[in-house]
Amino acid sequence: MKKEEPHNVIGAPNTPAPEQSIVKEMIVWWEKKRLIYNIFIIGLSVFLMYDFWDYPMRSIKGSGQIIMNAILFVFTANVFYTLGWGLGVVSHYLFKSKGLNNTGRWILFILGTLFSLVWTNLNFVFEFDVLFAY
Fold first, then answer.
1. H or E element: which one contains 133?
2. Could you read off the pLDDT of 65-118 as tens digits, one per residue?
3. Spatial distance between the Cα atoms of 125 and 132, rounded to a whole number of angstroms
4. Collapsing DSSP states into helix, strand and coil, what is residue 121?
5. Which residues of 76-103 are buried (b: 16+ CB within 10 A; e: fewer)?
6. Residues in CB range of 108: below 8 A, 6 or more apart
7. pTM of the complete model
8. Strand, coil or helix: what is 10?
9. Which end of the chain is more exposed for a tag (fewer CB within 10 A), N or C?
10. How large is the greatest C-alpha to C-alpha distance in the chain, in angstroms?
11. How does pLDDT run across 19-77, given as a tens digit for each residue?
């Protein structure tokens, strides 16, 4: 009979976690928060488009362009969101760090989301300002 070797269980006491599990844990943590991030960004984008669309005494030129720019903006925001875990993975491999702890990740997530919301607001304010015809 062939003797089976014991399997190491990640998270079991006194067993070091493999390097891949640290990276996987970083990515999974950030990806679970992506839905929250997208709800905020898409929600603000839709609100701003709705709010500016019927602005009194103005008409919009290029409404199709606004929607395409909004889709491109949300896609680009998600590319930048990926930097959250991307930089953690790079720092793990280059500097042998274990990444941020849970509190540090939440702080980075909240600050990044707030920055994205401000950037979204500015994007739509300037975009609508340029596309409005008097």
1. strand 132-133
2. 778 888 888 999 999 999 888 888 888 888 887 777 888 889 989 999 999 999
3. 11
4. helix
5. ebeeebeebbeebbeebeeeeeebbeee
6. 84, 100
7. 0.72
8. coil
9. N
10. 86
11. 678 889 989 999 999 999 999 999 988 888 777 766 665 555 666 777 888 888 899 99
